[in-house]
Design a protein that fits this description.
Shape: globular
Subcellular location: Membrane
Strand order of the largest sheet: 1-2
CATH class: Mainly Alpha
Protein name: General substrate transporter
Order of helices and strands: EEHHHEEHHHHHHHHHHHHHHHHHHHH
Number of domains: 1
Catalytic activity: myo-inositol(out) + H(+)(out) = myo-inositol(in) + H(+)(in)
CATH superfamily: MFS general substrate transporter like domains
Strand content: under 5%
Largest sheet: 2 strands, antiparallel
Radius of gyration: 24 Å
Family: Belongs to the major facilitator superfamily. Sugar transporter (TC 2.A.1.1) family.
Number of strands: 4
CATH architecture: Up-down Bundle
Helix content: over 70%
CATH topology: Growth Hormone, Chain: A
Structural class: mainly alpha
Main location: membrane
Number of helices: 23
Length: about 525
């Protein structure tokens, strides 16, 4: 028996499938942050550092070597997003997820097989990054195509929830192994990733095939079966055929817009694929420029500077827990209040917190504005507080919101190719920030927060002027939204009317009528009072 959310039937199977494939997000989250705990482990420093008589262990990692170790994963992710995601077009969505999971496992093995070989270690980081980068786009791509539209935002947000869960578990594992006397202290956190990759590999063949991929390949019956199971209705239910008709109609329209790489940047075709690629790239770029990963990658250093008595590993766990807690309300906010409102408010709050971070750190935290001197305890507590508020705000908004936008922005025929460029833009900024942040922070200290303050306010403006409201719309209705060139700031009303039309169509179909989904209602149509709350963006 299906549940109904805003009038659309949704099955328990749809929930299970989305939660399982979100394992790709868990791998993503774990892999990008476990290294922060390893970097300060004595046996990691002795294996990959250089002799340094001034420290207790006799070895240390220079800022340059740390930056290379951290950033090589991002470089691999960038390449994986560009090269791995398009495999979804000829291997299928499931086949591509399986293949890149195998690549990820191979990269982990290369990292832990030798001991003390820096070249092999960073090569393994790069190879693992190929898999993580591809998964960062393939999972939202698949979730966007498989999910019922009413809960697509929540389901794709599960990817971010799993990212935060992976981050938290990585921090806990680092904390649990830091006291081991031997190379196992860092090899265990790295090697455990093989388990996560094997779980994803083992389950991927049992995932349902994307119905849109099936229809694109003229396999209508497979699509019919999957749509019925995802919605928890009979395969001969008229709603199933209505969903298929909507998808088929848009696939026919897309034939005129091309399906090659150049078509991803075509600004003149009917589907506005060029504009949509740039919107997706902009959202993913600003997700990095919020400054979240500066905290997640280098949070141990921040906490150590403002509260030296706090264990760096405990500080990591605090960050991870706050991020995961913040993401859970994001599941609700992105669907209930809409993508635009949630992400605009989130960006403004994050911008203010980084402004306070810069003010406190620059003018109150350090005596004489010298970041090399001992921190004052009082202002340090205020600095920690605003960082925690930032993490919560990011979890509620841009953390899941960036991936939701990725999962729904592109039309079907160029979808995999566009998402490869979109995800690569995320990893480009991820690499730049992870590599250069240590050097910038050393030079300007907490004033680095003013950079992210400005970036967050630019992010809010970008959403307002360029990103339309897509919550609750089918991927096919999103095509229509761009075909009609609806301005982003006017998209709320358009969105509301289309969802009202779809609700009326579903009611008509269930009572034996012949309505179709994805039709825009006539101008001036408004919501009856009893439907306004149900379809409100």
């Amino acid at each position: 028996m299906p549940i109904r959310y805003r009038g659309e039937p949704v099955s328990l199977l749809a929930v299970v499938v989305n939660l399982f494939v979100s394992m790709g997000g868990y791998i993503f989250g774990y892999d990008i942050v476990y290294i922060s705990g390893c970097l300060i482990m004595p046996h990691f420093e002795s294996s990959f550092g250089t002799p340094d008589s001034s420290v207790v262990g006799g070895f240390s990692l220079s800022a340059h070597r740390q930056a290379v170790i951290v950033a090589l994963l991002s470089a691999g992710c960038w390449a994986g997003a560009l090269l791995g995601v398009p495999t979804a077009d000829f291997l299928g969505r499931r086949g591509a997820i399986f293949m890149v999971s195998v690549v990820f496992i191979a990269g982990v093995i290369v990292q832990i097989a030798p001991t003390g070989n820096l070249g092999a270690f960073i090569a393994g980081r790069f190879i693992a990054g190929l898999g993580v980068g591809a998964l960062s786009a393939l999972v939202p791509l698949y979730q966007g195509e498989i999910s019922p539209k009413a809960l697509r935002g929540s389901f794709v947000s599960c990817y971010q929830v799993m990212i935060t869960f992976g981050i938290l578990i990585a921090y806990i594992v680092d904390f649990g192994t830091k006291g081991i006397d031997g190379v196992a202290s860092y090899k265990i956190p790295i090697g455990l990733q093989i388990i996560w990759g094997l779980i994803l590999c083992a389950g991927t063949p049992f995932l349902p095939r994307s119905p849109r991929e099936s229809i694109l390949n003229d396999n209508i019956e497979t699509a019919r079966d999957v749509i019925a199971r995802m919605h928890g209705i009979a395969i001969d239910d008229p709603l199933v055929q209505a969903y298929i008709d909507e998808i088929q109609e848009k696939i026919v329209e897309e034939k005129h817009s091309g399906a090659g790489y150049l078509d991803c940047f075509n600004f003149k075709n009917d589907l506005k694929t060029g504009q949509r690629t740039l919107i997706g790239c902009g959202v993913q770029s600003f997700q990095q420029l919020t400054g979240a990963n500066f905290i997640f990658y280098y949070g141990t250093s921040i906490f150590a500077s403002v509260n030296p008595s706090l264990d760096s590993y405990v500080s990591q766990i605090i960050f991870g827990l706050l991020d995961m807690i913040g993401t859970l309300p994001g599941l609700y906010c992105l669907d209930r209040f809409g993508r635009r409102r949630t992400m605009i408010v989130g960006a403004l709050v994050m911008g203010i917190t980084y402004m306070l971070y810069g003010v406190i750190g620059s003018f109150a935290l350090y005596p004489d504005n010298n970041p090399n001197l001992t921190a004052k305890k009082g202002p340090g507590a205020g600095m920690l507080f605003v960082i925690c508020i930032f993490v919560l705000a990011y979890g509620c908004s841009w953390g899941p919101g960036g991936w939701v936008n990725t999962g729904e922005i592109a039309p079907l025929r160029t979808r995999a190719k566009q998402l490869s460029f979109i995800s690569a833009s995320n990893w480009t900024w991820n690499f730049l920030l992870s590599y250069f942040s240590p050097f910038i922070a050393v030079d300007i200290g907490a004033k680095y927060g003013f950079v992210f303050f400005g970036a967050n306010f630019l992010a809010a403006a970008f959403i307002y002027f360029f990103v339309p409201e897509m919550s609750g719309l089918s991927l096919e209705s999103i095509n229509t939204l761009f075909q009609e060139s609806v301005p982003a700031y006017k998209s709320y009303e358009w969105n509301r009317k289309v969802k009202l039309a779809d609700k009326k169509a579903a009611d008509d179909i269930e009572h034996g009528g012949h309505s179709k989904f994805g039709r825009r209602p006539a101008q001036g149509t408004d919501s009856p009072p009893d439907l306004k709350e149900e379809i409100e963006v």
